[in-house]
């Protein structure tokens, strides 16, 4: 019996159960990541970025021009910039 045949024979109830199980697994994974971040003293913040900030990051070489549309690269550049500024501030005290 192929997987396709088994899937075709699954009842609507079992399909709903499987979908709900996957949703719960995803929820639990998100919650574990949230708790791990919180335990480490980190938070996730939504951030809207405009062209001016992107140009600034590229001009100062915190972000490559080719990465200006990559959300993960933009986030990494902003975090690196802020960490560097915080470290400079810490050293100046």
The amount of helix comes to over 70%
> Can you give the mean pLDDT?
91
Rounded radius of gyration (Å)? 22 Å
Q: How far apart lie the N and C ends?
A: 71 Å
Structural class, please? mainly alpha
Q: What is the count of distinct domains?
A: 2
What characteristic shape results from the CA principal axes?
elongated
Q: Unreliable segments (pLDDT under 50, ≥5 consecutive)?
A: none
Strand content: under 5%
Q: Please provide the ordered H/E string of secondary-structure elements.
A: HHHH
Count of DSSP strands:
0
Helix segment tally: 4
Brief account:
With 93 residues, the protein is mainly alpha-helical. The chain has four helices and no strands.
Fold blueprint:
Blueprint: H1 3-9, H2 12-39, H3 51-59, H4 71-92
Task: Describe the overall structure.
By secondary structure, the protein is an all-alpha fold. It folds into 2 domains: 1-44; 45-93, no CATH class. Helix content is 71%, strand content 0%. The chain has helices at 3-9, 12-39, 51-59, 71-92. The chain is elongated.
Keywords:
93 residues, 4 helices, 71% helix, mainly alpha, single chain, 2 domains
């Amino acid at each position: 019996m192929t997987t396709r045949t088994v899937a075709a024979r699954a009842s609507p109830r079992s399909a709903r159960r499987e979908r709900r199980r996957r949703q719960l697994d995803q929820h639990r994974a998100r919650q574990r990541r949230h708790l791990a971040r919180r335990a480490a003293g980190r938070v996730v913040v939504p951030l809207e970025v405009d062209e001016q900030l992107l140009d600034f990051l590229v001009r100062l070489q915190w972000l490559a021009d080719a990465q200006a549309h990559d959300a993960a690269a933009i986030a990494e550049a902003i975090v690196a910039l802020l960490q560097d500024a915080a470290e400079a501030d810490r050293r100046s005290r």
